[in-house]
Amino acid sequence: MSEKILPSFDLSKNWERVREETLEALGKVLESQHFILGPEVAALEQDISSYLGVPYCTGCASGTDSLLLALMSIGIGPGDEVITTPFSFFATVSCITRLGATPVFADVDHGTYNISPEKVIEKVTPRTRAVIPVHLFGQMTAVEAFSPQLSEKGIYMVEDCAQAIGAARIIGGRVFRAGTVGEIGCFSFFPTKNLGCFGDGGLVSTSSKDLHEKVRSLRVHGSGKQYFHDEVGLNSRLDEIQAAILRVRLRHLEIWNEERRLVAERYQLLFAEHDLGEWVTPPAECESNRHIFHQYVVRCRSRDHLKDWLAEKGITARVYYPLSLHLQPCFRYLGYNEGDLPVSEMLTREVLALPMFPELLPEEQERVVEAMAEFYKNKV
Ligand SMILES: Cc1ncc(COP(=O)(O)O)c(C=O)c1O
Q1: 186 ligand 1 Cβ < 6 A
Q2: 253-378 architecture in CATH?
Q3: The model scores a pTM over 0.90
């Protein structure tokens, strides 16, 4: 293999674009010697509230914690059922089981990979307390198809927006950003996310003053007044350094998300140019959605062989996710079997994430798609 490695994401190119601004912001934090939950965190919470169009945001230590804080704030516990998708990152479900509640999996749509609204409705029981739709890979779930039924029954919607900051959907003629439709939105700032920091970080959004206050108390050990504890919470604080980095990066997020959309459009054109329709199914973008392509995930024939072939050519492609959550060994006790959620299981065999980042060049994308075309011409 002689060609340069093409990574699935390249953070260093992105860093070059904001180096000066970020170093300046970091310098200010270091000079202030204020490191935890200070003015930068408060300003970030304000900035993201304005960006999302939601009154309250609370920074926290990770996306995983944002989900945990959200479920704790609505009082999820033993005996409760929470409906969610089997096709997501582990944290979407571990936050439910960590609180002693039972995850109930509803299968996904094969085009968008998001939870299927009809399946959500089928799974509702008198014990259902919440639903966690995940806006997977950067595209919002069609939440309006089940949210009225949930609200009627007093079931909460906690949106997992870890991969979807800036994604939007037109609902009833209005544009909603991810994290503003349900009672609570949960975000991750893991470094590879569309808005990533230089460590771990997360955030909870809500329109409810009560839930907001609850989340703020829970993130500091369940304490409103220092050293007095109304309940047992977490240590889930966001630090000033991460907040300062995120404030710089938030200023660029819209442009970076648009660049990702262009990358996605180019992939689609290249697939058509190389006549790959029989082999490769690009991700579906619903008409009313603004997909922000955290990942560009296709479904493809002979997935594992294609992935190996691309690796031989120096191109990194990844599998998100290779095992459906209902079949994870740690959830065996829930009693699911292979075949129970067939669409999710099919996706685990067929999906492949191609290189995707705002700075990906047209010639690099051509290299990816040419290698795919060569594979399907000669190897299959
Ligand atoms: C869908 C989803 N939910 C939750 C998380 C958890 O976020 P974090 O890694 O910041 O804890 C992630 C992160 O990868 C994710 O992709």
Answers
A1: no
A2: Alpha-Beta Complex (3.90)
A3: yes
